[in-house]
Every structure is written in C-alpha cells, then in structure tokens.
Amino acid sequence: MSGKPRLTYCNGRGRMEPIRWLLAAAGVEFEEIFLETREQYEKLIKDGVLMFQQVPLVEIDGMKMVQTRAILSYIAGKYNLYGKDLKERALIDMYVEGITDLMQMILMFPFSPPEAKEKNLDSIKERATNRYFPVFEKVLKQHGQDFLVGNKFSWADVQLIEAILAVEEKIPAVLSGFPQLQAFKIRMSNMPTIKKFLQPGSPRKPPPDECYRETVLKIFRK
Amino acid sequence: MAGKPKLYYFDGRGKMESIRWLLAAAGVEFEEEFLETREQYEKLLQGGSLLFQQVPMVEIDGMKMVQTRAILSYIAAKYNLYGKDLMERALIDMYVGGTDDLMGFILMFPFLSAEDKEKQCAVIVQKATSRYFPAYEKVLKDHGQDFLVGNSFSWADVHLLEAILMVEEKKSDVLLGFPQLQAFKARISSIPTIKKFLEPGSQRKPVPDDKYVETVRRVLHMYYDMKAN
User: Measured in whole angstroms, how far is the alpha carbon of residue B102 from the centre of its chain?
Assistant: First the structure.
C-alpha cells in the first residue's frame, strides 16, 4: 500500500474536484480510481465500502471516508489549512459553505434540461456577481491581506480560486468590477502547489462534457 | 448584552432546527427573533447582518454567523461535542453528513403540493430504511457502545436522534427492524438536556404547517413552486 490518499469517483469534476484541489494545494500526492461502469459501482456497494452508497470515496489514513464536506474538513485540519483557532475556523467554514452553494449551481448545470440552461446560466451569473463575489471582494478590501482568513493560506482561499475559475469558464468577464478578486486570482494561481495543479498533466479535470454527463447518468441511474 | 446566542429565523423548524437541538443538547440557553414580515428581513439585509443575504443567522461570541453547517460546527467544537481528535471529528462529520442528507428530503416537504407530498413521503421512508438507518444501525452494532463516536456523547448523536424523530413523524413504525436504533433513541432521549428539549414548552418547534409555509414565502419571496425528489 502506497500510503497516498486514494480517490474513487467518475473521471470528471463533480463533487470530487474540490477534494483534488485541496489535496493539490496542500502538496499531497494522491491516486485515483475512475468509475466507468454500473458494475464497478454496484461492486463497491456490495463490498460495503460506501457508507451511504455514494461517492466521493476517499481512502485516507486507514479510513474509507465519504461525504465531501467531511473529507474536505479532514484534509484541511490535517494539513493546517483550517485557521489557528475556533473563530478562524468559523470564518473559513462560513466562506467555504457560501462558495459551495455557488459551486452547487455549476455542479448541477450539465444535468439541467436544454431549455433550462440559459436561465440557469443567468442564475449563476446573478448569484456570483450579486451575492458571493461582492462578499469576498469586501473581505479582501477591508483587511488588505493576501488571504481570506487570518493572513494565512487556508481552505477558504483554495475553494474561492476554484470557484472563480469555474465561473469564469462559463462567464469570462465575470470578474470585471472585482479588482480585489482579480488580484487574488493572480496571487493564488502563482502559489507553487496551485500553479502546478493548473498546468496540463495535473490531476485537475476538464469542464464536464457530454461523455462525462452520460457516464454519470449510466452509473447512477435512479 | 445578554451573552446568550441569538437566533434569527422563522418561527418554525427549517434549517434552524438542528441548531436549536444542538444548543439545547449542550445545555446552552438561547434567544430567538422570529421573522414574520418582509420588512424585518429587508432590515436585516440592509443592516449588513446576513453575509450571503440568507438566514439562519446566529449571533454568538461577537460574530454574526450564517451557513447552518458552519454554525453547527462552531457550537459542536465550543461545547466539546466534536470528538477528541481529527479522526473522531472525521467520523462525526461523515455521520452528520448522512443525517443532513436525510433531513434534506424532509426540509422541503411542507412546500410541496398534496400529490407531491405523498410521493416525497415514500422517498423519505425508502431512503431512511434502505440507505441511512442501516448505516447507523451497523455502526452501533459493530462497536456496541452507547454513542456513535468515541464512546462519548457528540453532535452526531444529537443529529441522528433529530432525524429519527422527524422520519417517525412521517411513519411512526419506521424503526421496526432497527433494534439498535430503537435502543439508541430511548437512550439519547433520556439524556437530561435532551429530555428537557423534548418536553412541551421548550424551544423545539412543531411540525411545519401551512402558516409556516406562508410566512417563509411571504418573507423570502421564494419557494412557490417546489417539486418532489
């Protein structure tokens, strides 16, 4: 056994992508198993490794962890990306949860019916520019520091850069009007571990395409 | 200033109920301000109290906290209901994630049409009995301890009891076939702080009714057209 965390998921972003980001940002190498068939998924369930019959699954430190948030919190805690005390953790948790709500809209986007796609895209743009981005723009402006919480790199920063890039893929000019976030994006992208993750050949997955969508529907059909 | 946490939400369960449960379980007294009008909500918004323009909001220790999960994690850690180390926290987080997903099916129930309510009820019972309850039944059976994690009362126990009672409200005999959970329910219900919370007159909120649904729609201008899962 290699000792590296092992991720089991479809070969695509979905709910596993924030976990890939956080491990990469922490400089932690990991292995991946990609679900391609319904049979693979049914075998995992039969073997009893999925506590709630769901992926993501991350095998780490002898645990078979499920539940995205639980996995992310564990990684953040383990690799010192969770602030220095309870209050910093509270801020990080608040920021991460807000960003996750925005990311949820992007997550579901490939699975919305064609006639709803334009409306959903407008919703993503509206939420990003009116609800979420202004909050982080203000946070950064008020304390003038490089990172969101406690003047130190944390899970919140990783989650935010991931979200910015994901929204930009859909709405390229979305950061116009957010100078702090533009500077934040550049700063985070230049951090060595993140820079590496953003290069071709890293475990980062491309935006979901039709093939990914079909695979997910085939494996997890209700 | 009272020093007690202050909860801002509707006079009903919704996403705030888990927070009421956890504070009560920890023996922490709290105050509540109930949103009844759109104006109250807009005043909170304009005052900048709602980080993402949403409730629940809890004023605690000088912070205006939003995001249910962040609030719950903070309370759990502050009152030593979050395990003794990172691994126990991981287990608690996993278990709470599951009960949260289960309660998520119930959260939107009051907003559904009568026909969709029937469909959703079946979904809730099916998920509870085939996915979630078996998982917790097994955890308890495997270690034979009184509590889910680390032989010590934690957030996970509070959240599971809340979920069990909510599902039972939809189907009263849903714990048939889950002897460990039946015993767990009896045990956790008799913990003094929880027993007190389960008595009439506590801050526990009743099953949401039409008045609650109307209030939420009126205040938030949302949730008019919800569909079953």
Answer: 10
